Amino acid sequence: MMIQDRGTFLKVNLDNILQNYNNIKNSLSNKEVMVVIKADAYGLGATSVGKYLYDNGVRHYGVATLEEALELRKFMNDGLILVLGVINPKNVDVAIANNISLCCPSVNWLKEVTNHITTQGELKIHVKFDSGMARIGLTNEEEVLEVKELISNNKNIELEGIFTHFANADSSDTNYDNFQKEKFTKLKAALDLEAKYIHQENTAATMRYVNEKTDLNLVRVGISLYGTYPSEAIKKVTNVRLENVSSLITEVVHVKKIAEHEKVGYGCTYESTEEEYIATLPIGYRDGILRKAQGWNVLVNGELCEIVGRVCMDQLMIRCSSNIKVGDKVLIYGQLGNDSLLVNDYANHLETIPYEVYCILGSRVPRRYYVNEKELENIF
Hints:
alpha/beta; TIM Barrel; Lyase, Ornithine Decarboxylase, Chain A, domain 1; 2 domains; elongated
């Protein structure tokens, strides 16, 4: 017997992801676009998102871990899959066998890797320069020259790429960007080796420096792929139009009328000031709705309804009118019919960023995939 779900799900518009990709790619000249689908495609589902993009011709992918790369390689027969984070050198043969490119973050990492290559074939690496993020990467010319010697003297190593990462490109102040560009250029000159890909620009930099003439030939696009600008500062300077991709939807499971001065929720943080209707939704902080969401207004049939009382682990309560009934659909953020709530506004309410809103969405929230507003039963 098939059980009915609790009416809570994330609606993911795959065609809008592809549209965002095309809008970004069409704004560029002579640059490939790497789609960053790390962290399970920012919580949207990497295998489904990746498969749809791959079937539509996308061939450059960025992930955070070797495990994420292997999941993609199951259905990607060709194309670049780059692990942007640091992998255990002992797993290098797995990367070679599956044609997965790795980030080279340090001299010691590369030395250890060369000691663990036992299989046939070449390891494709992208040498990472730390131009000002202070996360991973080579920081000075001495380290760069050591890496250059290791690459030049090892026939099992292929220098496929050179890259760095901006720390402040989503800001309105570009001074630190300029500092990082200069350092990247200096370290690249010290390496003095040919590479197929040279990449520096994340989503924000891709949009800000779209017309800048450089030798960069690849950009890495993450958050904008999923319909969100990196910041208001970037939204103001770009002509790229983004379509909404994800919508968090639930439904009313219970409605009651409470009297004046009744308490709602744990800690009694809300008290009614008059007779009110309270509706309960089957979604809570296990699903990624943080307790800070208290006070956020969701939409039910076009009606703004405030989350009152503390968000529970599995449920939350909203104050509503007598028009709201059990079974009514509720929009937390995104789009539902004519209703729309910006994820940026929701993130601001939570005092965080859209990246985190997407990534904290719980695993028990089903991801449903749509193309042309029709749900796909099985993307594979």
